[in-house]
Amino acid sequence: MKERREILEKLYLEFNPENLSRLTIDQYKDFFFSIFEYINLYKNKYHLTEEDFVDFSKSIHHRYNYDDYADNCWERVAFFMDELIFRFSTPPPYFFHSNFEDFKNKLKRDFTEGNGL
């Protein structure tokens, strides 16, 4: 249980709007995939579930006031959480049971200014 909390705490730190709002689209894309890789490394070891990330998604906006930052800051968090929760709720072989490079290639087209990022 402690390890699960540590992973979620890392996510809270990583999604600090001070840093998140300053990222370019390309930097956010790199950040996005690095966080997914991190989660993928530990998801089985610490028995992470879709519910862990649903709870995180519900509570992160209470931790930070994203309204004080650039317009795209909350959209970046929402984009990440939507993708993460979708991946956890989708049966294999979509993300966690497939090749990570394939996953990245499928999502790269979604990183555009017009997509709320």
Helix-and-strand structural type: mainly alpha
Note the run of SSEs as H and E: HHHHHH
Radius of gyration: 14 Å
Low-confidence blocks of residues? none
Share in β-strands: under 5%
Give the terminus-to-terminus CA distance.
33 Å
Whole-number tally of structural domains? 1
Counting DSSP E segments of at least 2 residues, the number of strands comes to 0
Major sheet summary line:
none
- What is the overall shape? globular
Q: State the helicity in percent bands.
A: 55-70%
Give the quaternary arrangement of the chains.
Answer: single chain
Average predicted confidence as pLDDT: 78
Tell me the number of helical segments per DSSP (H or I, 4 or more residues long).
6
In short:
This protein is mainly alpha-helical and 117 residues long. The chain is built from 6 helices and no strands.
Write up this protein.
64% of the residues lie in helices and 0% in strands. The chain is an all-alpha fold and 117 residues long. It has one domain. The longest helix has 18 residues, at 25-42. It is globular. The mean pLDDT is 78.
Topology, element by element:
Elements: H1 2-14, H2 17-20, H3 25-42, H4 50-63, H5 72-89, H6 100-107
Helix pairs in contact: 4-5
Could you list some keywords that capture this structure?
mainly alpha, single chain
